[in-house]
Specification:
71 residues; two-stranded antiparallel sheet; 8% strand; elongated
């Protein structure tokens, strides 16, 4: 094998080993995980056309909500 292939394999092995090492330190990151996942509350907001969109309309689908503020 060439040195390039060996280097790539070594890097992949290192990444795989570190990924399996230990679970994340949630307390150290000041993050509180919850188990089991909680259901999202009912939510209804207008879209850009003024039509009301409800979160329940997307049941069974992955939804990412992004809120931002300008203050």
């Amino acid at each position: 094998m060439s040195m390039r292939i060996l280097g790539t394999l070594a890097a992949l092995m290192l990444l795989a080993t570190s990924a399996l090492a230990a679970p994340p330190d949630f307390a150290g990151m000041q993050v509180q995980p919850y188990t089991p996942p909680k259901a999202a509350p009912a939510l209804a907001l207008p879209n850009l056309d003024g039509k009301t969109v409800r979160l329940e309309d997307f049941k069974g689908k992955v939804v990412m909500l992004v809120f931002w503020a300008t203050w």
